[in-house]
Structures are given as structure tokens and as C-alpha cells.
Amino acid sequence: MRLALVAQWLRAAVSDTDLRATALRYAAGITIVQMLWIARLFLPETIGFIGFFVLVAAEISVPIWAESHGPTPWNAHHIAERYGLFTLILLGESILASANSIVEAIDEGHHIPDLITISVSGLIIAAGMWWLYFSREHHEHFTGLRSSLTFGYIHYVIFAAAGAFSAGIEVAIGSAAGHGETPPVAAAATLTVPVALFVICVWAVALRYALGPLATGVLLAGVVIVGASTFLPGTAPVIGSSIGMIVATIATELRTGEDAGL
What we know:
Blueprint: H1 2-15, H2 20-40, H3 45-67, H4 76-108, H5 112-134, H6 145-176, H7 184-205, H8 213-228, H9 235-259
């Protein structure tokens, strides 16, 4: 992957004389950092552990250093679309997990009410997370290097939260079916923490630009309720209700803004 990326930057350097220096900086930076990643494999364990974080910082620094010579042209809408598609795939995993709970309920023939409750709640939560993410266009919120890097790296948390949410559904299914050995609070946290992180991060990259104080307050209150449900019985339905409350409030505000011509 790195060799292909370097080759493309060298190709850009040949074809675009105006951005040649920037392209060569990308090619050189990526090559050097990749060589350092390989060299890290031969370091002692402790030094290698520290080196990991140093190289992560170096990875982030390469585009900043390269773009400082001259910004490259890029399509914000296209980039936002790619992030959105990957988020959609990850949320699809949660739909699969909810479907598995129905299958498990039919196969085992017991704990059916609990499993169906988790399944329905999982579908509601996943649908709410999907709606929150795609309720506003994202590309209009980043126009420069700083905002685009912020958008991209916050998505690390969004991706992790969306993936962990589907795992949390599976943990909830196992606990309800009596197969899990995870303590109840820890099992609930596998569901509440990812949902809370997802909502906060989506608000940070897109919704905070569009929401008024009331909708923002409801969203933050909903996140607090999601977190508190870690210690309450019926975690999944509580999360589903909180997400529903957030979605309803934001949808109402956005519709009001559209009707007012804002």
C-alpha cells in the first residue's frame, strides 16, 4: 500500500509542475516513515512501544509538512462520502447482530422476550445512529487542512464506536441468554460507551454547526442518560429511548429551520 501511494505521488510530481514540491514531500515523508516502521520491529520491546507513538505523530505530521509548501486540490464531498460509506458498513454489522438475536431466540426457545427486546432496541439504536450521522452534509464543514485533519481523525473514534456497538449487542445477547460471564455493569458498558462516543463525535464533526442551544442540550442530556444506563436494568431499551429522543428533537429543529428558509 505504501509503495503504491509513493508511486502515485511521484506520478503527480511528474504531471503537475505547480505542485511538484508538495508531491515530492509526500513521497519522501511516506517513504521515510515507512522505513522507520520497519526499523521499529527490531527495537527492544519498551523502546518499540514508545516508538509506536512517535511514529504515529510522524504519520500525522507528513501531510502537515507537505501541504505547508502548497495545498493540493481535493474534493471535500468525495472525501466525506467515503467516510460515510465506511460508517454505514460498520453500522450494518449492528443490524446483523440484532438479526442474530432473533435467530438465537428461535433456536434456543428460551429467554425469548429478553432477546427480542435487545433485538428491537438494537435496530432502533442503529437506525438512530445512522440518522444522526447522515442528517446533515459533512463536506461543508471542512475546507482547509486543519478542519479536514480534525474530521478525519475524529472518525477513528466514530469507526471504533460503530464497530464496538455491534460487539456490545452480541455481549448483551450473550448475557440475556445466560451464556456470558461478564459482570452486568461491564456488559452494559460495552453497549453504552460506544453509543455515547458515537453521538458525541458526530455532534463534534457535523451537528454542532447546525443545532441550536435546545437541541444541543437535549443531545448532551441524552448522552448522559446513555452513560447512566450502564448502571440501570434494561440498558438497551433505555439507550433506544434516549436516541429516539435525540433524533426527534433534532429532526424537529432542522425541519423548523428548513420551513423558515434557514
